[in-house]
Amino acid sequence: MTRLAGSEGPRPTVSPAAPVVEPAKGGRRHLLSVAELGAEGIAEILEVSDAFVEVGRRSIPKVPSLRGRTVVTLFAEQSTRTRLSFETAAKRLSADVLSFSLDTSSVKKGESLRDTVETVAAMGVDAFVVRHTSAGAPAAVARWVDASVVNAGDGWHEHPTQALLDCYTIRQVLAERAGRPSQGAGVGCFVGLRVAIVGDVRHSRVARSLVLAMGSLGAEVILVAPGSLLPPSLEGWPVTEVSYDLDAVLPHVDVCYLLRLQSERGAGAFLPSVREYSTWYGLTARRAGLLGDGALVMHPGPMNRGVEIADDVAALPQSLVLRQVSNGVAVRMAVLFMLLGQAPVPGTGVSA
Ligand code: CP
Questions:
Q1: In sequence order, what DSSP letters do the residues of 296-351 get, joined into one string?
Q2: Rounded distance from Cα 81 to ligand 1 centre (Å)
C-alpha cells in the first residue's frame, strides 16, 4: 500500500492539530490521519475492504494472511466498537492479538507510556492499534517503536478508521440502490454528495476525520451545531457551509451524520442545558420527517438516545448505525492487511 505514511513516501500532510510524524523505523507504515491518505488512498482502502466484506460472508470468515503476525490493541480510553472490531479483524486475518489496557498495566505503578510501549514492543509486535485521550499519542508511539501504528482515536484529533468505515458504508448503500456491486464502484458517488455533520463538532475526532475524508472525495459538508460546539477555527476544514438551523438543512442533505454529545470532554459546559441542545439539534421523528426520500442517517456510536438521536429514529430503515459497525470489521481488516500483509488473500485476488 503506497498511501499509508511510512519512511519511503512523501512527508504526510497533517491537519493543524496533528504532530509531524518522523520517518518510521524499519520502513514500517502507519495510519495516523485521514489527511495523509487523499482520495486515492481512501479509494484503495475501500476497494480492499470490498474483498474483506466478501470474506466476512463466508461460512468460516477467516483467512491466513497475517499468520505469524502480532497485533496489540493498546487502549488508554474506553471503547466498545473500535477495540472489538480491530481485535475481530486481526483474528479473522489469523494474526495473534494482544489486548492491552493501560488501566490494568504497570502504568498504574508509574511506568511511562514510552517505557510501556517499548516493553510491549520488545516481545515482538508487528502493529500497535492505539487509542489515547491525548492528540498525537499514536504518532508518538510510531516514533518509539519498530512496528506499524494505527490511530484508533486520539483526543479531539482524529479517528481515521471511523471515517473510512463511514465512507465504505455510504458507498455500499449507494451502490446497492443503483443495483451495482460496490466492487469496482470507485469513489465517484461522493462527488457533490451533501453531508450534514450535526452536533458536538468541537470535541469530535470523528467529525475532523470525516470532514477531511469527505473533502478529499468531493462531497459537500454542512456543519450544523450551536456556535459553542464548533471548533474555535475552521481553518483547514474543507467545509461548504455552517448552519445553526437543523430544520432548514435537513430537507437538502443526502446524509445526516449525528455526533455524540461528548460530556466526558466537557461538552455540557458549552451548553445552557442538554435538554435545550436536544430541543434544537436532536434528530427527533418529526425532524427525520423533514429529510428527503432516501436520505441516510448515521451515527458513529455510542449513541446518547434521546439527546442527539431519538429511539424511533435510530430504528428507522435508513438508519445505518449497525451497518457501520459491521463494515468496521472489514475496513479494519483491509487496513491491517495493507500495513502488514504479504501474501494475497485467498479467493479474492487482493494483495497488499
Ligand atoms: N465509534 C467509536 O469509536 O466507538 P467506541 O468508542 O465504542 O470504540
A1: EEE--S---BTTTB-HHHHTSTTB-HHHHHHHHHHHHHHHHHHHH--SPBTTTTB-
A2: 5
**Nearest Cα residue to atom 6 of ligand 1:** 79
Interval between CA 158 and ligand 1 midpoint (Å): 12
Single pTM value for the model: 0.91
Select from 74, 75, 78, 81 the residue to mutate for testing ligand 1; criterion: most ligand atoms less than 8 Å from CB: 81
Measured CA to CA, the distance from residue 44 to residue 42 in angstroms comes to 5
The CATH-assigned architecture of domain 160-324 is 3-Layer(aba) Sandwich (3.40)
Confidence of residue 3 (pLDDT cuts 50, 70, 90): very low
Q: Which residues does a 6 A CB cutoff place in the pocket of ligand 1?
A: 79-82, 153, 159, 162, 300-302
What is the reported pLDDT for 351? 79
Q: Which amino acid is at 306?
A: G
Of the candidates 184, 249, 185, 187, the residue with the CA atom closest to the CA atom of residue 218: 187
Q: For residue 153, report the distance from its CA to the centre of ligand 1, in Å.
A: 8
Ligand 1: atom nearest CA of 301 is 1
Q: What's residue 8's pLDDT? A: 32
Answer yes or no: CATH 1.10.10.10 is held by domain 25-158+327-340: no
Here the cell at position 37 is 491518505
Which tens digits make up the pLDDT trace of 245-263?
Answer: 999 999 999 999 999 997 7
What's the 314 CA to ligand 1 centre distance in angstroms?
Answer: 17
Residue 266's pLDDT band (cuts 50, 70, 90): low
Q: Do domains 25-158+327-340 and 160-324 have the same CATH topology?
A: yes
Give the domain ranges of the chain.
25-158+327-340, 160-324
pLDDT(15) > 80 = no
Instruction: Give the count of beta carbons closer than 10 Å to the beta carbon of residue 308.
Output: 22
